[in-house]
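Tokens in:
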């Protein structure tokens, strides 16, 4: 069928009670009007309270927000213009369990403060950062969450991106003293020609040079967290 089914139509067809989704085999990509229900069902059935997504277009972000309802919220921007164009790397959180303190984002390029693409990369790439508080335990736990999607074509971009993310994560660990969570599609295996980002983020290879302003903004004192790695 054409992919023109409204969210309300999908909601009307949900089973009651919700069942854990049975995932499709490799039969080709299903229309988003079907896939969004599977995502929603998975979040609900597994009791998930925090989720990072990649390759999400504005319609998909808005649809998930509608399906999840008022107890959920999200942060992020479209990578192409810093507003709504292009793919998002959004962070969704359940407000009854997780509180948002602040959020920002940066581009994984030589000019991280503005929408921009690293030379030779296939696409513009972005990292979303959220300062959050987990409220479900006896005591609130502040933490920082970074969600991203590295390039599928340029290992140089992935190395730069991993170096930037590691720099920011190290700074947040030093500044807040809280846990750091990093999720995303790194397009980088643990070994082989595409392993550069993995090796940097896990501390097996030194970071590469990054934008000087960004590096200075998120610098930590010498000797701080010498063994920090993702």
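Residues out:
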């Amino acid at each position: 069928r054409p992919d023109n089914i409204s969210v309300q139509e999908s909601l009307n067809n949900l089973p009651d009670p919700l069942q854990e989704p049975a995932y499709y085999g490799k039969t080709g990509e299903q229309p988003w009007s079907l896939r969004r229900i599977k995502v929603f069902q998975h979040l609900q059935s597994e009791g998930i309270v925090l989720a990072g997504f990649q390759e999400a277009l504005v319609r998909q972000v808005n649809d998930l927000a509608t399906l999840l309802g008022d107890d959920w919220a999200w942060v992020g921007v479209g990578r192409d213009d810093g507003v709504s164009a292009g793919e998002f790397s959004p962070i969704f959180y359940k407000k009854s369990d997780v509180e948002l303190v602040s959020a920002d984002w940066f581009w994984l390029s030589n000019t991280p403060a503005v929408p921009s693409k690293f030379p030779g990369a296939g696409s513009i790439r972005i990292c979303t950062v959220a300062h959050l508080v987990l409220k479900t335990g006896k005591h609130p736990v502040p933490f920082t969450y970074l969600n991203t999607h590295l390039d599928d074509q340029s290992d140089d971009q992935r190395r730069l991106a991993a170096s930037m993310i590691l720099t920011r994560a190290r700074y947040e660990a030093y500044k807040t003293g809280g846990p750091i969570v990093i999720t995303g599609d790194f397009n980088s295996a643990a070994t082989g020609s595409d392993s550069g980002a993995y090796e940097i983020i896990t501390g097996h290879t030194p970071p590469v040079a990054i934008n000087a302003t960004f590096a200075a903004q998120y610098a930590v004192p010498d000797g701080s967290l010498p063994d920090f790695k993702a």
